[in-house]
Design a protein that fits this description.
FAD/NAD(P)-binding domain, 7-stranded mixed beta sheet, 5-stranded parallel beta sheet, globular, binds flavin-adenine dinucleotide
Amino acid sequence: MAKTVIVGAGPTGLAAAIAIKQKDSSADVLILEKRHKLNEVEGAGIAMPANSVVALRELGLTEELKEHAYQVKHCIYTEADGRPICRASFTATGTNVPFMAINRGELQNLLLKKARTLGVKVQTGCELINFKQNNNATIEVNWQQQVPISADNKKSELLHDTFDLLISADGIHSKTRALVFPDVKVQDFGLTNWRCIADKPTEFKELEFEPTFMWGNQGQLVMLYPFSKDQCYMYFHTFDEEKNDAQYRSFSADDFKSFGLFVPEILNQIKTQNISLTTSRFQITAKPCYFNPKFSSVLLIGDAAHPVTPILQQGATQGFWDAYFLGKLYNEATVETLPMSFSRSRQDIMQNIMNRSNDPVKNIVSSIRKGDFAERITALRKAGTPLNIAGWKNLFASYPDQINVRITAP
Ligand SMILES: Cc1cc2nc3c(=O)[nH]c(=O)nc-3n(C[C@H](O)[C@H](O)[C@H](O)COP(=O)(O)OP(=O)(O)OC[C@H]3O[C@@H](n4cnc5c(N)ncnc54)[C@H](O)[C@@H]3O)c2cc1C
């Protein structure tokens, strides 16, 4: 039986632990997570396209999704003043599997609860420092553990242990990736985004909601995704590749003052209720970094292996699919061959999904640079289908297994 350590208790790390324990209830799985509180996650909400929902059902979370996630039915693109550009039902993506949205904290909680119920050990306040692979292919892992000594003080201890398998799910700025793929660079698109949770705007409260994407003429985007009866996930982005790291972090409501519909009300909520916003940039790697034969007992998954732009919402989604494949291989492959077999089955699919997620954003950025973003809006109006709906339709047609996989009983 392999002794497995997973680094990172984000959506991918937790899903991977669940997938392993479902295949082998006696598996010895430890998660090391540097944060102290697991439900305090940044990023507000998460949209789950149909293939995300299928993967989570496969991980035995059907009931949890019914209870905590919210089904969205249509998607509309408008100009900044609210004039419609195009709209479509999610069934236009060619599947009847629901599209859902959820509060990130709730997603994190339900994954954590499931992992713990299955007997996964989760240690918080533990930051991976480094590791080395021994001649017998075992992995020696060193981490720093923060131990509280009083209400205000913590001391840190250096700890280490030896494992058969190291699975790294430590996110976009993965320390493991830096060690295993030192030449891989993270590319930045110059797009800054801010995300928060807000009350649903009053004028829409009684209506059946739809996610709304509002495009400004310089390529700004405001997105509203409902994730409960009363709350929604708000997302703003602007293009500002000239700005430096410190400048891009501050949110300026002025960038969005020309936006209509519900935007003024949301901006007012942000100001008067002092709502905090999570800031991040669109960052990617050029190819998936799952496995390097020099570290045969190490597998990277989720954002650590393949950060993508969020246009098709495949980030967490493909983290769940990584978990699903890991579970499948856990029984089929030996521990010595698992990382390599995993990489062989996932590398090409993931490269394709990365390209489909990144190319539209590259086009958007090039239009903004050339100053012809308005033409892109005209082309969208002509095409008549929101970019993401068209993208999902093609994705699901190319990878029907991610939609039609046989749903196993939880
Ligand atoms: C603007 C934006 C919107 C997005 N919207 C969506 C969406 O709607 N749907 C979707 O599917 N995806 C979306 N994504 C992508 C999604 O957020 C990520 O793909 C997802 O969070 C990746 O999960 P993960 O577990 O791999 O990494 P993370 O969520 O980053 O988790 C990594 C974990 O590892 C821990 N960690 C890091 N370093 C260490 C260390 N050294 N030691 C121990 N622990 C460590 C971190 O604390 C963290 O808990 C979006 C991304 C962005 C930027």
